[in-house]
Amino acid sequence: MGKPLDAPLGTNTLSVRDNRTGKTYSIPIVDNSISATDFKALSAPRAPSEREENETEKGLRVADKGFLNTAVLRSEITFIDGDAGVLRYRGYPIEQLALHSNHLETAYLLIYGSLPTKSQFQLWHDEIMHHSVIHADAEQFFRSFRYDAHPMAILTSALSYLGSYYSEANPSLQGQNLFTKGDKTSLATMDKQIIRLIGKATTLAAMAYRVRQGREFVTPPTGLSYAGSFLYQMDHLGQENYVPNPVLEKALDVLFLLHADHEMNASSTSVLQVGSSLVDPYSAVAAGCASLYGPLHGGANEAVIRMLISIGKPENVPAFLEAVKKREKVLSGFGHRVYKTSDPRSFIVRKTADEVFKITGKDELLETAMALHDAAMKDNYFISRKLAPNVDFWSGLIYRAMGFPNDFFPVLFAVPRVVGWLAHWRQMMLQTGGVKIWRPRQIYVGAGKRDYVPLEDRVAVEEPKKTPSVVEHSGISKRTTLASFKGQTRAKL
Ligand code: CMC
């Protein structure tokens, strides 16, 4: 720090002159990145007019609302080149994996770093399938949801609920270094939770499905693939020798593989943020699931279908796009923080859709989807903003053709993404230097220090965003509003 500005050209450093003080700093560049903490050394005396909350004397802060250009860790798991439309898991192009691998093999690759041998895969597969059964009491948990509960709400809760069974996997009970020691016992404890979570993800998801259908739950079968077992658990109604359709099983497996990881997306970041407090992995994964639920992330596949239904037919596409351009609507399934061209997964999803449509028949919304896709790809609004289809644009159409209800689509995203969440969680637990709690800073722009005002001296603040809204009391009937009763505190609603 504080080195001269004329550092030799060609060195991996950044020279920064702080014009407030005239001091020059030399900041190392490592792997084409600079450390935000290096900027903390750039402090200056606070000008008399400046707010004390800026903490100018304590060093410069780095602001990045929405993490537009902040690398939160070093990772060996997934690489995306958003301009070229490249996605690689541990170096392997997604196209090759989709063609030759399967979801559980890819899961091994993502979590442990290399493709398993035949015997390694067999053991991994068997362990995961063996750990798919959950405690019988869980049935009551699933039955406790209201009939119309969103399956993502059920799954998120179920993942957290699952953790309550494993006190031996809880750092709050067993010691905070339970997963960070890196010794044989610690690794075995960690891997057991990983196997359990992947094994039981399909079971929990299938239970969330069946509870909505009013069906009995199904014990995970033996002898089926991961995707096959999932289909069986959702669909088996007691028929003898029930075997899911192999084309649908394969398609679901490919979709699982494509959704298994996507580097620092919102849900993986949530898992790491929550996991950084060293909470148990079930709680961390539940947080990831909650994040995935949102319509800007995993909920987009459900939003795409709702959007297509609202458009109705190809003739209505131009009017819809005009509304998008006026910012009255959003084109769900388009755009991505990292991809500035088509998401490579969207091509594979499109191809998989054709395989599925061959046996299910085409979805009636396909024509509208294609018309929307083609029109958006030719429209300057989308071209100039580099907005192209993402994985969610086509995936919902396959899920629909397979007969899944719309609100189940994000669940079909969450189940495979458990793998990516765990790969990132494991990597963080074992990273050199241990786990650092994720505790970002803020730029405080609120009120400066002020003294408490006695009740009688206060002036009412009336601005809508600065006072509580008047809320409707749900479930109150007209009859109740017209009734009188002791303790009634409000005028008629
Ligand atoms: N429809 C219309 N305009 C859009 C869209 C869209 N889908 N996406 C981005 N834009 C516009 C945005 O309004 C902005 O315009 P301007 O520069 O004039 O203000 C510009 O394009 C840049 O977009 P941004 O909002 O700054 O981009 P972001 O990186 O913050 O957001 C995104 C990325 C995925 C949240 C966003 O593109 C979006 O909301 N897409 C629709 C939801 C969706 O499909 N999500 C799934 C993402 S992929 C899978 C996953 O992660 O789950």
From TrEMBL:
GO molecular function: acyltransferase activity, acyl groups converted into alkyl on transfer
Keyword DNA repair: no
Keyword terms, alphabetized: Transferase, Tricarboxylic acid cycle
Listed SUPFAM superfamilies: Citrate synthase
Keyword Cell membrane carried by entry: no
Highest taxon of the lineage: Eukaryota
Residues forming the catalytic site: 336, 392
Pathway(s): Carbohydrate metabolism
Entry's Gene Ontology BP terms: monocarboxylic acid metabolic process; tricarboxylic acid cycle
Protein family: Belongs to the citrate synthase family.
Protein name: Citrate synthase
Species classification: Eukaryota, Fungi, Dikarya, Basidiomycota, Agaricomycotina
